[in-house]
Amino acid sequence: MRAIASAPGKVILFGEHAVVYGRPAIAVPVAQVRATAEVAPGVPGSGLHLVAADLGRTVLLADAPADEPLAAIARLTLAHLGIETAPDTVVTVRSTIPIASGMGSGAAVSSALTRALAAYCGRTLATEEVSALVFEVDKLYHGTPSGIDNTVIAYEQPVYFVKGEPPQPFHIAHPFTLVIADTGIASPTKVAVGDVRRAWQADTDRYERLFDRIGEIVRRARRAIEHSNDDALGPLLDENHRLLQELGVSSPELDRLAEAARAAGARGAKLSGAGRGGNLIALVRPDQAETVSAALRAAGARGVTVTQVG
Ligand code: MEV
Is the beta carbon of 283 within 6 A of some atom in ligand 1? Predict the structure, then answer.
């Protein structure tokens, strides 16, 4: 008996960072890139082995340190299921989601692993249980995450998210096309979130005002997406990017990609995720996707993905 589960990548459309401070944010799954976990029977008495196939790394759960990401989600899952002795299994994870790019690779791997391991043990986890377990692991790595990454990835649906509240149903009236461009520069969420926190502590009023302005953009973006008002979305992306620059989480590379996308005809562009590196997203008409992708590559993007949202 084997069990397999998978989970998508994600991008944040609007509201990153401010979401950590209680403002809303909008995120969508990106199904073209996925993490997969497969659980297969192991040799009797061998314990539970975790194989990170892409990294060529194998660890025995019993020997793994507490902060090993795969071990952490495996242990949390078994504890949640009330299983004291890890089954003799080989748990193999693979992912096509770029690591540390803001696309939620860690949360997707955790989500796939917890679902596959539960299924192998004959159990089905509710989506909110998956989301909560993945959140526990994200906290180990990201310090003070808002919970948006585990939510959008576990639910695999567009989410309008406010920290501490259940995700709100959110309808995309008219599908739209995004070009996602990877700077190739790692975007460690913990570092960017920690820097914003220090800046907020040093100048709380200014940062609260910036977060309020971002929150207002997110509310306007939700109305635009729900009412097929695509013309409003591009300028809202641009405005959100400017505010992220003011928060100090953009970078010359991200700004260069944003300019290149706009010059090639994109209707708007912003960094997505924690920033500093990671991804830029550009809103395009479907017939512009190729031109904008080529312009982004010429401006230094390492990888470009075109995705339809909705
Ligand atoms: C990271 O994908 C999004 C951030 O807002 C952090 C978080 O919400 O936990 C930067």
Answer: no
Catalytic residues: 149
The DSSP result for the chain, as a single string, is --EEEEEEEEEEEE-TTGGGGT--EEEEEEEEEEEEEEEEE--TTS-EEEEEGGGTEEEEGGGS-TT-HHHHHHHHHHHHHT--S--SEEEEEEE-SPTTSSS-HHHHHHHHHHHHHHHHTT----HHHHHHHHHHHHHHHHSS--SHHHHHHHHTS-EEE-TTSPPBP---SS-EEEEEEE-SS---HHHHHHHHHHHHHHSHHHHHHHHHHHHHHHHHHHHHHHTT-HHHHHHHHHHHHHHHHHHT---HHHHHHHHHHHHTT-SEEEEESS-SSSEEEEEE-GGGHHHHHHHHHHTT-SEEEEEEE-
Nearest to 2 by CA among 46, 53, 36: 36
Report CA(145)–ligand 1 centroid distance (Å).
Answer: 6
Q: Give residue 190 CA to ligand 1 midpoint distance, Å.
A: 9
> In a mutational test of the pocket of ligand 1, which residue from 30, 137, 142 has the highest number of ligand atoms less than 8 Å from its CB?
142
What the chain holds in terms of domains, given with CATH numbers, is 3-161 (3.30.230.10), 171-309 (3.30.70.890)
Can you give the pLDDT of all 310 residues of the chain as single tens digits? 899 999 999 999 999 999 999 999 999 999 999 999 999 999 999 999 999 999 999 999 999 999 899 999 999 999 999 999 999 999 999 999 988 888 999 999 999 999 999 999 999 999 999 999 999 999 988 878 999 999 999 999 999 999 999 988 788 999 999 999 999 999 888 899 999 999 999 999 999 999 999 999 999 999 999 998 889 999 999 999 999 999 999 999 999 999 999 999 999 999 999 999 999 999 999 999 999 999 999 999 999 999 999 8
